[in-house]
């Protein structure tokens, strides 16, 4: 869904005084299914905000990169002067979660993309764009997701990527369980950065987002309790 349906007044503005137990999590609001992530983050106890400008990025504890069209988002990152600030924040340890197009953007290498497309190198992985095929090849399945209690996760794949190479420091969280793509990697984590090839924001199952919010909450609490020197 296009982010234009989201009213800026419908979500909180960045607030440096927000309690770390309710982390301020930005959703990159340039293109894609922004509304769905905003709703799920709020239900998981976070304080979601829209991020379109560098100042808004600077005010958040973490960032979600939504599904959408990865090359369009890549271009908009440059137009809105967010590309380098986002790379810097990821390099400095900001937690991030990318779904579908967000996974592509977080990769260190992308196959089958435009030559001028940008990526963020938030995770040491090679991702193949549109790996499962075109829109007509979209599908749903249940997958085992490492570290999540409660049984399999319903995964919705829409023109989805997959991970062709995961670096030595990357934890594989989920693989396709069967079919022609059996064994393909579709969820990973490296440190504070998580990525899924599927769309957990559209299924009504909030466990992936809750895991990410808990990760961010732990980072925010740690930062808040570090004594000043």
TrEMBL record:
<feature type="binding site">
    <location>
        <begin position="158"/>
        <end position="159"/>
    </location>
    <ligand>
        <name>L-glutamine</name>
    </ligand>
</feature>
<keyword id="KW-0456">Lyase</keyword>
<dbReference type="InterPro" id="IPR029062">
    <property type="entry name" value="Class_I_gatase-like"/>
</dbReference>
<comment type="similarity">
    <text>Belongs to the glutaminase PdxT/SNO family.</text>
</comment>
<keyword id="KW-0378">Hydrolase</keyword>
<comment type="function">
    <text>Catalyzes the hydrolysis of glutamine to glutamate and ammonia as part of the biosynthesis of pyridoxal 5'-phosphate. The resulting ammonia molecule is channeled to the active site of PdxS.</text>
</comment>
<comment type="subunit">
    <text>In the presence of PdxS, forms a dodecamer of heterodimers. Only shows activity in the heterodimer.</text>
</comment>
<feature type="active site" description="Charge relay system">
    <location>
        <position position="201"/>
    </location>
</feature>
<dbReference type="GO" id="GO:0036381">
    <property type="term" value="F:pyridoxal 5'-phosphate synthase (glutamine hydrolysing) activity"/>
</dbReference>
<dbReference type="GO" id="GO:0004359">
    <property type="term" value="F:glutaminase activity"/>
</dbReference>
<feature type="active site" description="Nucleophile">
    <location>
        <position position="100"/>
    </location>
</feature>
<dbReference type="GO" id="GO:0005829">
    <property type="term" value="C:cytosol"/>
</dbReference>
<dbReference type="GO" id="GO:1903600">
    <property type="term" value="C:glutaminase complex"/>
</dbReference>
<feature type="binding site">
    <location>
        <position position="129"/>
    </location>
    <ligand>
        <name>L-glutamine</name>
    </ligand>
</feature>
<keyword id="KW-0315">Glutamine amidotransferase</keyword>
<feature type="binding site">
    <location>
        <begin position="68"/>
        <end position="70"/>
    </location>
    <ligand>
        <name>L-glutamine</name>
    </ligand>
</feature>
<dbReference type="InterPro" id="IPR021196">
    <property type="entry name" value="PdxT/SNO_CS"/>
</dbReference>
<dbReference type="GO" id="GO:0006543">
    <property type="term" value="P:L-glutamine catabolic process"/>
</dbReference>
<comment type="pathway">
    <text>Cofactor biosynthesis; pyridoxal 5'-phosphate biosynthesis.</text>
</comment>
<keyword id="KW-0663">Pyridoxal phosphate</keyword>
<feature type="active site" description="Charge relay system">
    <location>
        <position position="199"/>
    </location>
</feature>
<dbReference type="Pfam" id="PF01174">
    <property type="entry name" value="SNO"/>
</dbReference>
<dbReference type="InterPro" id="IPR002161">
    <property type="entry name" value="PdxT/SNO"/>
</dbReference>
<protein>
    <recommendedName>
        <fullName>Pyridoxal 5'-phosphate synthase subunit PdxT</fullName>
        <ecNumber>4.3.3.6</ecNumber>
        <ecNumber>3.5.1.2</ecNumber>
    </recommendedName>
</protein>
<dbReference type="GO" id="GO:0042823">
    <property type="term" value="P:pyridoxal phosphate biosynthetic process"/>
</dbReference>
<dbReference type="GO" id="GO:0008614">
    <property type="term" value="P:pyridoxine metabolic process"/>
</dbReference>
């Amino acid at each position: 869904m296009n982010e234009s349906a989201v009213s800026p007044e419908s979500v909180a503005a960045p607030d440096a005084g927000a309690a770390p137990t309710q982390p301020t999590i930005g959703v990159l609001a340039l293109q894609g299914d922004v509304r769905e992530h905003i709703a799920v983050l709020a239900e998981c106890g976070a304080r979601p905000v829209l991020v379109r400008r560098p100042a808004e990025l600077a005010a958040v504890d973490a960032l979600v990169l939504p599904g959408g069209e990865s090359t369009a988002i890549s271009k908009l990152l440059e137009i809105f002067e967010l590309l380098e600030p986002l790379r810097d924040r990821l390099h400095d340890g900001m937690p991030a979660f990318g779904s579908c197009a967000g996974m592509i953007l977080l990769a260190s290498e992308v196959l089958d993309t435009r030559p001028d497309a940008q990526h963020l190198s938030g995770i040491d992985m090679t991702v193949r764009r549109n790996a499962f095929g075109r829109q007509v090849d979209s599908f749903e399945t249940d997958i085992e997701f490492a570290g999540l209690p409660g049984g399999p996760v319903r995964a919705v794949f829409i023109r989805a990527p997959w991970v062709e190479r995961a670096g030595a420091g990357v934890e594989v969280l989920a693989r396709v369980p069967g079919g022609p793509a059996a064994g393909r990697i579709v969820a990973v984590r490296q440190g504070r950065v998580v990525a899924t090839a599927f769309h957990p924001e559209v299924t009504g199952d909030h466990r992936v987002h809750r895991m990410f919010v808990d990760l961010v909450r732990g980072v925010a609490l740690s930062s808040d309790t570090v004594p000043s020197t």
